[in-house]
Amino acid sequence: MEKELEAQIECSIEKALIIIGGKWSFLVLRELFDGTKRFGELQKAIQKISPKALTDTLRHLEEHQIVTRTVYATVPVTVEYALTEKGLAFHKILKEMKLWGAQWG
């Protein structure tokens, strides 16, 4: 019974990691917890991320319904990113990771 429960937890953790994605996802989410941001704002806030890595990360998060992408018909086109309800639900976990990193990092 205990092994079965362990397997379920491991599976759930694996699912969560697949949904969230790579290392940049955590930093993108951190920025979006403060509110809607444009691509340039995200890139400026996450200094070491390349435009390609940011694009790939945002696409991954959008694909997994963590982030919404809203396009405005302006010249040039304005694109904004915001967290979905699913993305906002991750906030508590990220805060705990921040505390853990502060204590043990």
UniProtKB/TrEMBL annotation:
Residues 11-105 form the HTH hxlR-type domain. The keyword Transcription applies. Transmembrane segments: none annotated. Keywords: DNA-binding, Transcription, Transcription regulation. It comes from the Bacteria. This is Winged helix-turn-helix transcriptional regulator. It comes from Ectobacillus funiculus. The lineage of its organism: Bacteria, Bacillati, Bacillota, Bacilli, Bacillales.
